[in-house]
Amino acid sequence: MRKLSFLALTTAVVVVLGASAPAKAFCLVNCEPTEADAQKVFTNLIHTKFDPDAVIKEFKVDRFWRLDVEGSGHAGIEYYYTVKVEFPKGANLECKPDAEGKVKQGCSPDTSFYSTTIQNRMIKEKQYIEPGKVIEFKDETRFDQEGSGWKGQDGNRY
Q: What is the pTM of this model?
């Protein structure tokens, strides 16, 4: 009888805590960021860096792995993916090259590479994308463990 009462009390506590906790705040198993979280980070960054109306047409994770971030004492997870993004209205239209192919200051003439997070090839200036164009991104994102959660490169917790 005591075992049954203890089990009932434990179950009740878990149900109450689970019902009152926000999503992902109460995690017992598989608490690492998922492919869906990686896609959310990419979506947030693409909407910030390029255009809020950009549409993700295809998102495919190529690989991922867990890391021990050396010297920092915390874990990390990296996702590498290929994404096709459509820009119905274009992006950074103010950066459209003139007839001679020149762009305004603060804009990049580079249209050979687009990224939201790859730091060693990051193009800091705005890049023009013509309306209706579909761009393929071969990109990556990293999540760093912070306490009981994970921080994405978009600054949000997952």
A: 0.77
